[in-house]
Design a protein that fits this description.
It is a single chain. The chain contains 12 helices and 3 strands, in the order H-H-H-H-H-E-H-H-H-H-E-E-H-H-H. With 374 residues, it is mainly alpha-helical. The chain has a 3-stranded antiparallel sheet with strand order 1-3-2, covered by helices on one side. Strand 2 and strand 3 form a beta hairpin. Helix 3 packs antiparallel against helix 4, helix 5 packs across helix 6 and helix 10 runs antiparallel to helix 11. The longest helix is centred in the first third of the chain and has 33 residues. The protein starts with a helix and ends in a 16-residue tail after the last helix. The mean pLDDT is 94.
Length: 374
């Protein structure tokens, strides 16, 4: 009743301000005829259920079970079509129910000359399918599976702190050391694009892998010559921004970020953080990437000296880029070394904001920014 058009009209007349007290609400002439009560009750309960199912389809819900695009079909486009149809039916049903409730209360209060039962689409609160949003959501779920937050073998949260249970992961195995590098080229075996491709292959099959990667890349709308390059550019430039926005500036995936040259970036999962996480990131990934850059520069220098025409020009550009990235990683290493030696652990009960600051503060109390700003 309180969400119906007649009550909205009452409230605008009785109290046309933004402040709506319980006293004003208590003055609403509340009446539901016996003949209408069961209908109103059933429609209201169905609306709550429709809205809950919509909310639970995304990972920010406490009752999230699995991503809606994870279906037993070979093509993500087919999965999205099914999801789109499900959303449309839910949207249409909720709109129809709201209009029927409006009609009932309009009849009860005899407002047929003042109001109509129609509900505008913008006022229907459940979501319709959105290709870009839903594919980004799938990417986020895949990252959750990479870290063990989610599992393809169990519903809901598989791990969010406490004792690790490896038996929950059989179909897709999480990253063992809680660090996934995000680089502008494929330098590591556990590179995030490598892991993501493996995830898509595991879920939808090897036969449709390339078609599915193209579908994802098209939906993300990023630049690149191949689907893998376009997906890599999303991880490199936009993923963490979308994640921070989704979790309202309380991210659960944290990105080590060396700066504008994209010299070094790596994701870790907050709930798997321990005192050695920063040290592991530094030694096993940052230092290894520095050696990779040095080797790549030497190879490019050989090409620049022995090649001709376009080869020389491309090699020189590559040397310039890699040199900047190498310098950035050395500058970053100076910052991260102090934090690594401090062996900073976290307490999940303190929340994201406190811990985000804690892991970037040395023993001397100095703030050292090594994670993406939020």
């Amino acid at each position: 009743m309180l969400n119906s058009k007649p009550v909205d009209l009452f409230l605008n007349i009785m109290n046309p301000t933004i402040n709506l007290s319980s006293g004003v609400t208590a003055q609403i002439p509340a009446e539901v005829e016996k003949d209408s009560f069961n209908t109103v009750s059933c429609l209201s309960k169905e609306n709550v259920d429709l809205s809950r199912r919509d909310w639970d389809s995304f990972e920010t819900s406490w009752d999230f079970k699995t991503h809606p695009l994870i279906k037993p079909v070979p093509l993500i486009s087919e999965s999205f079509a099914q999801w789109s149809d499900e959303c449309e039916k839910r949207f249409t049903r909720l709109k129809s129910n709201e209009e029927e409730l409006n009609r009932i209360f309009i009849d009860i209060y005899s407002f047929q000359d003042e109001l109509t039962p129609e509900v505008e689409e913008k006022d229907v609160t459940v979501r319709r399918a959105d290709l870009t949003r839903d594919i980004k959501s799938l990417v986020s779920y895949a990252v959750g599976c990479m870290f063990g937050r989610y599992s393809l073998d169990v519903e809901g949260l598989a791990y969010a702190g406490g004792e690790w249970d490896g038996s929950k992961y059989k179909t897709f195995i999480p990253d063992p050391d809680n660090c996934i590098p995000v680089t502008d080229e494929e330098y590591f075996r556990d590179d995030i694009v490598v892991r993501f491709v493996d995830f898509i292959r595991t879920v939808y099959g090897a036969d449709t892998l390339e078609e599915n990667l193209t579908f994802i890349a098209d939906a993300l709308g990023t630049r690149g010559n191949t689907s893998r390059e376009r997906i890599r550019n999303y991880f490199l430039n936009d993923f963490i921004k979308d994640h921070i926005k989704m979790y309202q500036k309380r991210p659960i995936y944290w990105m080590f970020d060396s700066g504008k040259q994209n010299g070094f970036r790596a994701l870790v999962y907050m709930h798997r953080w321990n005192a050695d996480t920063t040290g592991n990131v530094r030694v096993e990934y940052l230092h290894k990437l520095q050696r990779i850059y040095e080797n790549e520069i030497r190879q490019s220098q050989d090409v620049a000296e022995t090649g001709s025409g376009r080869e020389v020009s491309a090699a020189q550009k590559r040397i310039e880029k890699l040199t900047k990235q190498l310098k950035e990683t050395h500058d970053f290493d100076e910052k991260i070394a102090h934090l690594a030696l401090s062996r900073i652990d976290i307490d999940l009960d303190d929340g994201v904001k406190v811990n985000y600051e804690k892991v970037q503060t040395g023993d001397d109390g100095k703030k050292i920014e090594v994670l993406t700003k939020i």
